[in-house]
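A quick aside before the break. I want you to see a complete sequence-to-structure record at least once, exactly as it would be stored in a machine-readable document. Don't worry about memorizing anything.
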Amino acid sequence: MEDNTILDSFNDDGSGKGLSLTNEIKGYLSETARWAKFISIIMFVMTGFAVLFAIFGGAIMGSMASAFGQGGAGMGLIGGVGIFIMYGLVAALLFFYAWYLFKFATQMKMALLGSDQDALVTSFSNLKSYYKLSGIVMLIGVIFYGIFFVIAIITGLGVAAGGF
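That is the input. The structure line, written in C-alpha cells, reads:
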C-alpha cells in the first residue's frame, strides 16, 4: 500500500478527490530539491566571483586606462564604473536566483521530512518566485534584442543608402 499524504481534501467541485503525494512523487521532489540546492550553492559562488570582479575589474580597468595618459584617465573611469555597474547587476541577479532556488530546496526538504504543509507551500512559493524572476529577466532580454535588431536594421539601411 502506498503512503499518500492528502494535499487537497476536496476538489473545487466538492467531489472529495484531492491531490496526494505518493512515494514516487516524494522521491522526485526530494531529488529535485537536492539538485536545486547544489545549483544554488554554485550560483552563490558565482555571485561571489561576480562581486569580486565588479570591485577589482573596475579598479583594474580604471588604472590600466589611466596609464595611457591624460585622455585615457577619463575613459578608464567610465569603463571602470561601467564594469562595476554591469557586474554588480549580474551579481544581484545571480544572488536572487540562488536565494530563491536555495529556499525552495531547503523548504522542500523540510516539508518532505516532516510532512509539513506550510514548508511545502513556502517551498513552492519560492520556486514560483524563481520562475517569475526568470520570466521577467527573459522578457527584458527579448525587448533589448528587439530594440537592438531594429537599430541594426535602421543602421544597415542607412549605410546601404549612403547616409552614414
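Two observations worth writing down. The mean pLDDT is 85. The CA atoms of residues 59 and 65 lie 10 Å apart. We'll return to this after the break.
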